[in-house]
Design goal:
This protein is an alpha/beta fold. Helices cover 37% and strands 27% of the residues. The chain is built from twelve helices and 14 strands. The strands form two sheets. The protein has a seven-stranded antiparallel beta sheet with strand order 4-3-2-1-5-6-7. Strands 10-9-8-11-12-14-13 form a seven-stranded mixed beta sheet, sandwiched between helices. Helix 1 runs antiparallel to helix 2. The protein is elongated, with a radius of gyration of 26 Å. It binds S-adenosylmethionine (SAM). S-adenosylmethionine binds next to helix 6, strand 9 and strand 11.
């Protein structure tokens, strides 16, 4: 049993795309053959299992993390052979009558076995198997560098956030950046982003995480000290009214609730930050204010109003950024199955034609008139005479 487990562990260490379990030990074993095929839908990878009896095929899907466990469960005392294929290796595992395990391995040249879409999925910046200490300590990776099943969503979020940043910073040869993470919370993203800049991109960063929670800030500073991340600091404070006297190149927020995102965007605009990456959440402000006359169909049903209000909040933010010279996009941050808070505002300073800036502001003002609301970011910029 121990021997079998060791052999299976060795197989599943690789990115396995296909497995065939065969050669049953006796005729009473229910299935003649069991196949596992790596599949992907909605950006989530899984194995499809096909279990063959004489007349029928039964299907089951499992999470990629459970491959080893499932193989062991099926093969134990029931089958004598596993064939498995990764993108590089063919495995042939055989169990003798006396229960001895033999694991054969050879280089795989059958490229047709490779599931192309899955490879795309796996092409993450933070790959499984990389020994990223913050990800291990934060419980997202195991000590062996595998994703912890229950943290898969968090892993996807961090990866996607970093991918989007990577896309943007590739455009320039940055040597040094000052970055503010507003509403950093437990700082999963902050630590991993620091690692990404310093260890992967070799860019010197000076990073600050700000949050209202004293215990969280204390903990994060302790961790940063333990890693020797000397340019990563955490401060206790409110985003609203936060002062920083040097230039800030990038502002990020991940799920800074409701108007906390507006204050963060406002600070970034005031600092003339080059880049902003912000995933808002709990956009309640406009929902509470909204009243409509000609478009009352959108406020007639509570659930519709709530969703429309949230989408309008982010459209208004994007337009206001554009009106102040930011090239702005709203991107799907993460598949809705992984998080319902799935819009990311990406904005970078650019030469936006005046006409376009004016139009963006007009659109906001028209929407405000239609729905009788006054968004916080608009108010802040107006008070400051920035719009
Ligand atoms: C949902 S958590 C997200 C934490 C982290 N960014 C993440 O995604 O894991 C929101 C965080 O924003 C912080 N926050 C909310 N309003 C804030 C404000 N006005 N100033 C500073 N932090 C704030 C909260 O204390 C909380 O830790």
């Amino acid at each position: 049993m121990e021997e079998l487990k060791k052999a299976i562990d060795e197989i599943v260490k690789q990115e396995i795309v296909k497995v065939v379990i065969s050669n049953r030990t006796n005729k009473d074993v229910e299935y003649n053959k069991i196949n596992f095929t790596l599949k992907e839908t909605n950006k989530k990878a899984y194995y499809q299992i096909e279990k063959y009896t004489d007349k029928q095929v039964f299907h089951e899907n499992i999470d990629v993390d459970y491959l080893g466990e499932k193989l062991l469960e099926y093969i134990e005392s029931n089958y004598k052979q596993i064939g498995a294929w990764s993108t590089t290796t063919t495995f042939d595992l055989k169990i003798s009558k006396k229960g001895k395990v033999f694991l054969g391995k050879k280089k795989n040249d059958n490229v047709n076995l490779v599931n192309k879409s899955h490879n795309k999925e796996k092409n993450y910046i933070l790959k499984e198997g990389m020994m990223i200490q913050p990800l291990i300590d934060l419980g997202i990776f195991t000590k062996e560098g595998k994703i912890v099943n229950s943290k898969y969503d968090k892993y996807k979020q961090i990866n996607r956030f970093i991918e989007i940043i990577d896309d943007e910073i590739k455009k320039n040869d940055y040597k040094e950046l000052t970055i503010l993470d507003f509403g950093c919370g437990k700082s999963y993203l902050t630590f991993v982003l620091y690692y990404y800049f310093v260890e992967i991109k070799n860019i010197n960063v000076n990073m600050i995480g700000l949050d209202l929670k004293a215990d969280v800030i204390q903990k994060c500073n302790d961790i940063a000290n333990r890693y020797g991340y000397k340019n990563l600091k955490f401060e206790l404070g409110d985003i609203n009214g936060y002062k920083y006297n040097n230039k800030v190149d990038m502002v990020i927020t991940l799920h800074a609730c409701d108007t906390a995102t507006d204050y963060a965007l406002y600070n970034a605009i005031k600092w003339n930050s080059k880049m902003i990456f912000s995933v808002p959440c709990c956009q309640h402000e406009l929902n509470h204010q909204m009243k409509a006359e000609s478009l009352s169909i959108l406020t007639k049903y509570g659930i519709v109003q709530e969703r429309v209000a949230a989408l309008m909040t982010d459209s208004v933010r994007a337009n206001l950024l554009e009106s102040l010279g930011y090239k702005t996009q709203l991107l799907e941050f993460i598949d809705i199955a992984h998080s319902p808070k799935n819009i990311l505002i990406r904005a970078s300073k650019a030469n936006i034609p005046n006409e376009k800036k004016e139009k963006s502001l007009q659109e906001v003002e028209e929407l405000m008139k239609q729905f009788n609301f006054k968004p916080t970011l608009f108010n802040l910029l107006k008070e400051d005479k920035l719009i």
